[in-house]
Amino acid sequence: MPHKHHILLGIVVLLVLLFAAYHSAASYPFTPAIQQDRLDTHQYLDLENTGQRIVAVGERGLIVYSEDDGSSWQQARVPVSVTLTAVHFPTPDYGWAVGHGSVILHSNDGGKSWQLQYDGNDVNQAWLEHCLGEVTRIGNILATLESSASDPEHLQELRLQLEDAEYAVEDAQRALDNGPNDPFLDVYFLDKNNGWAVGAYGMLYKTNNAGVEWVYGGTQLSNTDRYHLYSLVVAQDGTLFTSGELGILYRSADNGVSWNSLTSPYDGSLFGLSIVNGTDLLCYGLRGNIYLSKDAGASWQAVSSENTASLFADLLLPNGKVLLAGAAGALLSSINNGTAFQASYHSSRNSFTGLAKTHSGDVLLASMKGLIKIPYNTFTQHDR
Description:
four-stranded antiparallel β-sheet, alpha+beta, 2 domains, globular, 32% strand, 3 helices
């Protein structure tokens, strides 16, 4: 029979190994992205022409850039290994990328190297502080009204609100204990200082100092159920729009300080937004639904395309040309500022999640199976 000290030693060794394995798994997302080969064949979710080069982001922290219109790619230095979902460059040098684990990355060299600015630990702490603030706010109102013998029904409603706020604190504390989890899904910068990031469960964060500080900005959203936010866009007059799950739409006319809920034309997910013709707002999403508003989201008209595949990405070209792309290889084009679309389907039937125009006039697409370059006229040729 083994000596009891040997048994205890074995248990200790096993616990150490289990702890090491857990720690390694938990810290993996925040280790530098592994160098890959065949860079154009991996999964990518977004890409952008910065004016100097094309930058694409995707799985396992992979960020690549091309200085020859996508003929060859180089891998950027990235401090995380989580899937990255969106990228935006307000200037050729300054860019931001977001993704899983609520990470926000920043580059000041045109996408060649990246630094971590914010992550899920910061998000969870900010959300906990917000929830604690709600408990204090509602508790103070309730105490004041109770002392003045206010309407019993109103008091009961406040008590229920306080109970919900206390539950939210418990959930926020668990999220903080469990660590980074939820993804950011889009990022947009008006200039190199002012930007916003949105994501799962109603996450909306903003910065006015190039990401040195990010603050929770969702207080004014009437999104108590915390539906996912998928897309951000800014009109020429500075009006900010965001769209999301179950067709939610919001508009801000004061740089994201306050938000108004818009009447949605559709109760399914709206994955993308675009400003066409300078002022018109285009939204698109689940099952190929497309809607156009000429009055900043006050009213909408359905846009015909004869496509039922979900749409995930858009690209604006000169002379009123709008391109959309999505599931099952869907490639849609409009030559009249988005008032009607013609659909074609790429032979690969890949799901396309990002679009960028090359300097030579071709179009690069991010997909689940890599980066694909096609001539622009592909969007106007049916191959089904």
